[in-house]
Amino acid sequence: MKRSLSSRFFRHAGARAGFVVLVVLAAGAIAAPWLSPHDPLLPALRERLRPPSAQFWMGTDQLGRDVWSRILHGARYSLPIGLLSTGISLLVGAPAGMVAAFYTGTPRAWIDRLIMRGMDILLAFPTFLLALMLVTALGPSLINAMIAVGVVGIPVYARLSYAAVLSTKEREFVTAARACGSGDAAIIRRHVVPNSIQPLIVQGTLGVASAILAAAGLSFLGLGARPPAPEWGAMLSDGRVALETAPWVTIFPGAAILVAVIAINLVGDGLRDALDPRVRVDRG
């Protein structure tokens, strides 16, 4: 009996766990203004560097701000950064790779060479170094960090879609559509894209985790979110000055990043298995 996509996805034990964690994180981010027991931005110097307690569940930072409240509000920065950065990479890289692959071996093969050589140039730079260069050129800010992370991810989706379209464009249904007089745009829209999108969905899911890590790294270096924004990477950077005397200021934001990245990777792993008909291993 053929199972639906959702049933195959939720048979994966890791995917179920990751999905629940992501739902909790998203709900916490949405409800942060009501769940936060303290103002995440307002300094309270009399309460600075308090250890975890009943009043401050995760302690306070060097300005007396509640770490728990800042982590809740930080989810409103870090999770959208991952989604929007991945969206930039996917929306630019995937169409570019598809167009390049579609015109491979045709009189318009120069389009393929132009696009893919540009991707090769981007891939020649180490990913994080290229992001550093871009955000330095654009100026340190959360928006620019998001754009930089999105740009460095473009070649990944371009090459993935390129490979997917190369294996799809010679299929019988594409040949039949061309024989019926369909133009290139119609063939790409109706036949090539729907049959090449599966690996992009999986990679996009996994790419959110990588984008969160990259944005956190830029914020840690002072090139992302600006104070007093409670972005998780920026919180890590702020806490390093008190690492020996107040480790909770760094440990809890780091744990939030770790949990979010693991949950997203688990969901991506489950989605990959659910979309791949060749995978029949029951992990649940």
Overview of this protein structure:
By secondary structure, the protein is mainly alpha-helical. The protein has a single domain, classed as MetI-like (MetI-like fold), CATH 1.10.3720. Helix content is 68%, strand content 0%. The chain has 13 helices and no strands. Helix 4 runs parallel beside helix 13, helix 11 (198-220) runs parallel beside helix 12 and helix 12 packs antiparallel against helix 13. The two termini are 18 Å apart. The model is unreliable at 280-284 (pLDDT under 50).
Q: What is the structure about, briefly put?
A:
The chain has 284 residues and is mostly helical. 68% of the residues lie in helices and 0% in strands.
* CATH class descriptor: Mainly Alpha
β content, as a range?
under 5%
DSSP, total strands? 0
Measured distance between first and last alpha carbons: 18 Å
In the predicted model, the low-confidence regions spanning at least 5 consecutive residues are 280-284
Cα gyration radius (Å): 22 Å
Mean pLDDT: 86
CATH fold category name: MetI-like fold
CATH evolutionary superfamily: MetI-like
Q: Would you list the SSEs in sequence order as H and E?
A: HHHHHHHHHHHHH
Q: What characterizes the major β-sheet?
A: none
